UniProtKB/TrEMBL annotation:
InterPro entries: ATP_grasp_subdomain_1, PEP-util_enz_mobile_dom, PEP_util_AS, PEP_util_C, Phosphohistidine_dom_sf, PPDK_AMP/ATP-bd, Pyruvate_phosphate_dikinase, Pyrv/PenolPyrv_kinase-like_dom. Residues 538-889 form the PEP-utilising enzyme C-terminal domain. Its EC number is 2.7.9.1. Its cofactor is Mg(2+). Belongs to the PEP-utilizing enzyme family. It comes from Streptomyces spororaveus. This is Pyruvate, phosphate dikinase. The keyword Cell cycle does not apply. The keyword ATP-binding applies. Residues 65-290, 298-347 form the Pyruvate phosphate dikinase AMP/ATP-binding domain. Residues 423-504 form the PEP-utilising enzyme mobile domain. It catalyses: pyruvate + phosphate + ATP = phosphoenolpyruvate + AMP + diphosphate + H(+). Keywords: ATP-binding, Kinase, Magnesium, Metal-binding, Nucleotide-binding, Pyruvate, Transferase.
């Protein structure tokens, strides 16, 4: 973006507020908000996301930025009574990233900016603590070297481990000032050797380089991967927060911690978080040292604990949500370093939403916006069978719930490699860092021997909905030897382990799973509101009930048999949006369809159709009975021919071998000749759908007759069949008119024969671009449209789904061409624009035109919002996704109503 000369690029914490997240990022906006609330926030200022965008677009910072930073830095120095890098009493600052949407650990931070060989002695003198000063200096060189100068962080870690080993200690707090002074010298040599330059001694140079590093961190591989995973736009940029340092590493009366106003794993109220004495914030987040529970702070420093509890209540009441808080205590003085609406597990999201309604902090509409279909889907995953025989390896902190089983892997690369080969894996690390993100995404779950509920592993896993167990201290993880030891038991890479993110338990081998209680609730086997009802199920019930009251979109199921239909009905389906009749001909009936397709004479064809008719009728009777009183959309036969014909290669080999033995089968020879005649290079674009019905006389008539006779039988049995007949793959209104004329004639014949009046509507599936573009014409002959977005996506993009997903989709996702697969979430700009056009044109011709979607997008949360927006009447999806679609349909309606009221 171009630079505006009048643009303001720097805001003091006193100038912003929480509504400026686009400009100040989440961290900066919330620091400003806490400052406005009068909470103890160290003074500082924020460089805006607009400055970052200019830098990323042009390769250099805005011309006005340096002058604005200098002015705000001078004001900060005046407020603090000391200057940045001052030799006898230095002002030190932190430089931290802060995008609009939380991206924990994905971008860069540098603490203790302003220290140098000269000012470190001044800091030691002012603090009266030489060890503290040298500890702060080694941290600066380590973070600056890794973050700004791109030095391998393992080199610093190895040097630190060697220093501890030489002293025969296990934690860095046991290193004294002399040890740390030697470590600083070694760190500086690492920087000089690896970066090709000395560690900068000028404080302002440190500051400017750190700001640029934060800007650059927006486009690191791990940040881009995280944004794709979380569907965060790539053009937002990050703000940079420059804050005066407060120190948690001044001794036992100092420390740092992370707190949650409620448990982010369960949603329960209480004191949740981690605290670490004599440490800086990165120690807690990185999980390098094991923390103590936040409740222990009451014993360690009661005054700070009481003040923190008061502030936590203030923030939760103010933000009306679970708050995630970072704080530091400097010699008994509490400082607030960050707050944000905290990431929480799916179960916690539902519980917290209903708790806040009960407290009067939010209403039901807002509660509905606090949860998502993705979270509901997570709650429907299975859990471990508590009655199963298990071998317990150990127990850690339950950081993110779920039941995960997989082969043990000890690095991110192996996790990705094995996952791509179809293996389910559990990523095991001492602690994770941002470079482990791709492995975390590829894994079923994450297990660490260090860290707590606020460690990197825990926070990222909760955000992704991954099962995670942290801080399992009894597990000795040896990543170099690729093994984990627990007592006498050794788990090698490739051994299967099971982890329970709800209890923190780690098991050897595969533990069997049982259905989720939420699924049992949807299936009617658990009743919310009973005395013993699970609290989570009760919360889900309340929010689903509200979603059903407010949603406009109806939700149907894709179901091809009575069993699936009944299950879909239990899940809340309001009909069937897609019954794929070709699925009724798989298995034993496949040969019957084969005989029909290959029939040479009218007699053979009539014989094949007569055999199929009663089978079809029986299927439809069962289906209509299961969905009695609800609409059922039956799609006429739409098989790519290769699904019902023998494989041409196998048949050719069979015939060739038979001919070589001189015992060729006449039927096989005839079959091979027919298969060659009908063979297609791209069956998805060949003889299928309406084309098949027009080419094979009597095929669609047989199906319509079976549908009509089944409906008449159900009606005469006092049932209430509501049947819709859908013609597939129509590209022109003439195709639909011919089939409809034949169908109307068959229905009239059945009505006359049974003495029953049938109200069967006839419509079409819109799955070709031409059908969408000529929707005004097609609507003249169609009573309803159902968008087949799977095929429409294939034909709009020119993709053969079965081929491209395995060949180049991974590269497209990695390169950012796709934020998400267009088969997973609808492509609003391309496919979506055709859907919108067809809706408008179809309804212009026929105002009462019923509109739905039956592609897999019908159960995708983001796509459901789009379908609400363009005015569809219903979405249809697989039975398991019906609750997700119901919830998102409610959220879409509540969101639209909220936008209208504003």
């Amino acid at each position: 973006m171009s630079e505006n000369k009048d643009q303001k690029f720097v805001y003091d914490f006193t100038e912003g507020n929480r509504d400026l997240k686009d400009l100040l990022g989440g961290k900066g906006a919330n620091l400003a908000e806490m400052t406005n609330l009068g909470l103890p926030v160290p003074p500082g200022f924020t460089i805006t996301t607009e400055a970052c965008k200019v830098y990323l677009d042009s390769g250099s910072a805005p011309a006005a930025l340096r002058e604005e930073v200098s002015a705000h830095l001078a004001a900060l120095e005046a407020k603090m009574g000391k200057k940045l890098g001052q030799s006898d009493d230095p002002l030190l600052v932190s430089v931290r990233s802060g995008a609009k949407f939380s991206m924990p650990g994905m971008m860069d931070t540098v603490l203790n900016i302003g220290l140098s060989d000269e000012s470190v002695t001044g800091l030691a003198s002012q603090a009266g603590n030489e060890r503290f000063a040298w500890d702060s200096y080694r941290r600066l060189i380590q973070m600056f070297g890794k973050t700004v100068l791109d030095v391998d962080g393992e080199l610093f870690e190895d040097a630190l481990d060697e220093a501890k080993a030489a002293k025969k200690v296990t934690v860095d707090t046991d290193l004294d000032a002399a040890d740390l002074k030697k470590l600083v010298t070694r760190f500086k040599k690492i920087v000089a050797n690896q970066a090709g330059r000395e560690f900068p001694q000028d404080a302002r140079e440190q500051l400017d380089l750190a700001v640029e590093a934060v800007f650059n961190s927006w486009n690191t591989d791990r940040a881009k991967l995280y944004r794709r995973q979380e569907r965060i736009p790539s053009d937002l940029g990050t703000a940079v927060n420059i804050c005066s340092m407060v120190f948690g590493n001044l001794g036992p009366d100092s420390g740092t911690g992370v707190a949650f106003t409620r448990d982010p794993a369960s949603g329960h109220a209480g004191v949740y978080g981690d605290y670490l004495q004599n440490a800086q914030g990165e120690d807690v987040v990185a999980g390098i040292r094991n923390t103590v529970p936040l409740a222990d702070l009451e014993t360690i420093d009661k005054a700070s604990y009481d003040q923190l509890m008061t502030i936590m209540t203030t923030l939760e009441t103010h933000y009306k949500d679970l708050c995630d808080i970072e704080f530091t205590i400097e010699r008994g003085q509490l400082w607030m370093l960050q707050t944000r609406v905290g990431k929480r597990t799916a179960g916690a999201a539902f519980r917290i939403a209903t708790q806040l309604v009960d407290q009067g902090l939010i209403d039901e509409a807002e509660a509905l916006q606090r949860v998502s279909g993705h979270q509901l889907a997570q709650l429907m995953f299975p859990r471990f069978d508590e009655g199963a025989k298990t071998t317990l390896l150990g127990r850690g902190i339950a950081a993110s719930p779920g039941a995960a089983v997989g082969k043990a892997v000890f690095d991110s690369y192996t996790a990705v490699k094995w996952s791509r080969s179809g293996e389910k894996v559990i990523l095991i690390r001492r602690e994770t860092n941002p470079d482990d993100l791709d492995g975390m995404i590829a894994s079923e779950g994450i297990l660490t021997s260090r860290g707590g509920k606020t460690s990197h592993a825990a926070v990222v896993a909760r955000g992704m909905g991954k099962t995670c167990v942290c801080g399992a201290e009894e597990l000795d993880v040896d990543t170099k030897r690729r093994r984990m030891t627990v007592g006498e038991t050794v788990i090698e890479e490739g051994d299967v382990v099971s982890i329970d993110g709800s209890t923190g338990k780690v098991y050897l081998g595969e533990v069997p799973v049982v259905p989720s209680p939420v699924v049992e609730y949807f299936e009617g086997r658990m009743h919310a509101g009973a005395d013993d009802a699970d609290e989570l199920v009760a919360a889900v019930h309340r929010i689903m009930a509200y979603a059903d009251r407010v949603r406009r979109l109806r939700v149907r199921a894709n179901a091809d048999n009575a069993e699936d239909a009944l299950r879909a009905r239990r899940f809340g389906a309001q009909g069937i949006g897609l019954c794929r009749t070709e699925h009724m001909f798989l298995g034993e009936r496949r040969e019957m369809v084969e005989r029909l397709i290959l029939a040479d004479t009218d007699g053979e064809r009539e014989q094949a159709l007569s055999a199929l008719l009663p089978l079809q009728k029986k299927d439809f009777i069962e289906l209509f009975e299961a969905m009695d009183g609800l609409p059922v959309t039956v799609r006429l036969l739409d098989p790519p021919l290769h699904e019902f014909l023998p494989d041409i290669t196998e048949l050719s080999v069979r015939v060739a071998l038979a001919e070589s033995r001189k015992d060729a089968n006449e039927n096989d020879l005839r079959l091979l000749q027919a298969v060659h005649k009908l063979h297609e290079q791209n069956p998805m674009l060949g003889l299928r759908g309406v084309r098949l019905g027009l080419v094979i006389p009597g095929l669609f008539a047989m199906q319509v007759r079976a549908i009509a006779e089944a409906a008449a039988e159900r009606k005469n049995a006092k049932g209430d069949p509501r049947v819709e007949i859908m013609i597939p793959l129509v590209g022109t209104v003439q195709e639909l008119e011919i089939v409809r004329e034949e169908a109307d004639q068959v229905i009239a014949e059945v009505e006359a024969a049974t003495g029953t009046t049938l109200k069967l509507s006839i419509g079409t599936m819109i799955e070709l671009p031409r059908a969408a573009l000529t929707a005004a014409q097609i609507a003249e002959a169609a009573q309803f449209f159902s968008f087949g977005t799977n095929d429409l996506t294939q034909t709009v993009w020119g993709f053969s789904r079965d081929d491209v997903e395995a060949s180049f989709f991974t590269a497209y996702l990695e390169k950012g061409i796709f934020g998400v697969s267009p088969f997973e979430t609808i492509d609003k700009d391309g496919v979506g624009s055709l859907v919108r056009h067809a809706v408008e044109q179809g309804r212009a011709t026929r105002p009462d035109l019923k509109l739905g979607v039956c592609g897999e997008h019908g159960g995708d949360p983001e796509s459901v919002h789009f379908f609400h927006e363009v005015g569809l009447d219903y979405v249809s999806c697989s039975p398991f996704r019906i609750p997700v679609a119901r919830l998102e349909a409610g959220r879409a309606a509540a969101e639209a109503k909220g936008s209208d009221s504003r």
